[in-house]
Please model this.
Amino acid sequence: MQLDPQFQELLDASTPQALGGSGNTPPTPVTTDGDNELGPQFAELLADSAKFASRGDPNAAAAQAAYNMAQNTQQYLRVGPFKTGIPLPHWIDNTLGGMGGRALQLGQWAYQSLGGTPDPLRAAVAQQLQSGPAGKAGSFLTDVGLTAPLGGAVTSGLAKLGGVGARIAANTFGRAAVQGAVQGAATAPPGDRLQGAAFGTALSPVLPAVDGALSKLASGLTRTPEAQSLLDRGVQLTPGQMNPTGKVVNRLEQAASGLPLVGGLVANARVRGPQQFARTMLEDATAPGERLSPGNADFNDMIGEAQAGFDRAYDQTLQSSAAGIPVAPRILNPTQRNVYVPLVKAFQQLADQPRLGLTGTQRQMMGEQLQEKLAETVAVAKRAGGMTADDLQQLRSDLRAAARDVSPLDSASRAQKGFWNDAQQTVTQSLESQLPPDTAQALRAIDAQYGKFAIARRAAVLAKDQPGGPTPAQFSQAIKEATAPNTYAAGGGFNRDLSKAARGVFQTTIPHTGLTGIGTVLPIVHAAEGVGGALLSMHNPIAGLGIAGGLGAVAGAYTRPGLRLLAGQTSAQQAARRALGAVPPAAQEAISRYGRSAVLAPALQAPWMSPPVPAE
Model:
């Protein structure tokens, strides 16, 4: 292997013979006088060379003399044998020198392993070029650049063999062990390659750990699919809630909520998730174009705000003019506008329809109530100058309230609820048949959202004055009540998947009272107390800073920014995942392989480095 021409020139001027000696004999000091006197820097180099040669290592003296001369000489970029005249900073030149020195060293070791005798001067030069921070950095780059593809080639060869070799190559720790063994053997001196391979294999478990740590840094903590669905909707989760089925973190969080200092932060963070879930459910049920106020945290206030939004939406849709949209109490035929069914007749048909749980007399009584309500609505409209869409909308709203007031506890109550729901649907048909097509379409969109809002409102009723609003279980109950049995049994219902995910994520795995959680948290608490007491007994400011830092790290993890980081939701983490997602799998494996080599290289070099030149 050829040395850099510039360094070769300096080396030729720094050999033992050029310095005035031969073999192990110290070079003869050079003296001049007059105008030919050597400069003080070069005289110092000669003195250093004589010192090293006197210790029996003239090759090291020559190598160091050339290296020192290079540090005091402007170096230029070369392209092959040509000097470009572009000046190189010394740190770049030394880094390149370190890369070449390590390559030269590995080549000489390989030559020696094959039975050859390496050139001692070149060995000294290779070692000298790897001195200093920049030279060591260059040596590190060479190790990574040479051993990563070599380890990948061996792993690929094992995969092609099949059998045990293929299983080793397919396993994360198996690939790391193969790469560590190859890298350890390739970078160890002759005679120590077996030991180097063993050392590389022993260190190999750290490589997947580094891969895993980097992956966690970009993606955040492991979480269940249910937790991810909540995170995707903007619900913040604690580490325990991200993996609620875990046997340690989730239980520890629940048990630690009552501890001093950090317990309050943990408890508040765990409560925040269900509150955000409840808000998300209501946000999905607001009228088209309406949004909840960002600062409103009281669920009952949010229900009132959402109801006001529906009132505005209905008013804006049905009042297309100052006088409103004129209608009549009838259902028009969609194809023959002059053919219609009066609401009086349609309501009578509802009363005549048999219903399981209601007798004929009961149905007629309910039908009479319905007819009376219709007559009252028509009379009020006439006094106001004529019936408009707002009047039918008010009638429909009253019928919805009547259906809502009935709890479906038995067949009779279910039949009553169904009667009032069918009545309000009949009024809906009357409205939509008389509205312009675009207005009818807008009304259907509002109605669809209103059905969802009714579920959120029912959940609020079930929650009563519970702080934080309805629980996932109460939302589940409201969804069940509002969904047809067959649809519900098949997994249907408003936001059913989100509700099921919330019930799984926010489950309590230890009771709020009793001793169940003590066995989980007390050993950890006592261990933390022991470590803290030992540190405080040192009366050392660093120990105090360590305790403060540990508490700060725990506290920071349960703040909003900390939870976003743990969930992989920061913009930097998302950008890293997008970048990784754009990298082909083969390239990702190459990046991982070079990363593992970079981690392993410093540890493998340390035991095999040549001993330093003894001090004077």
Remarks:
- Strands lie at 75-79, 82-88, 330-332, 340-342.
- Residues 132-161 form the longest helix (30 residues).
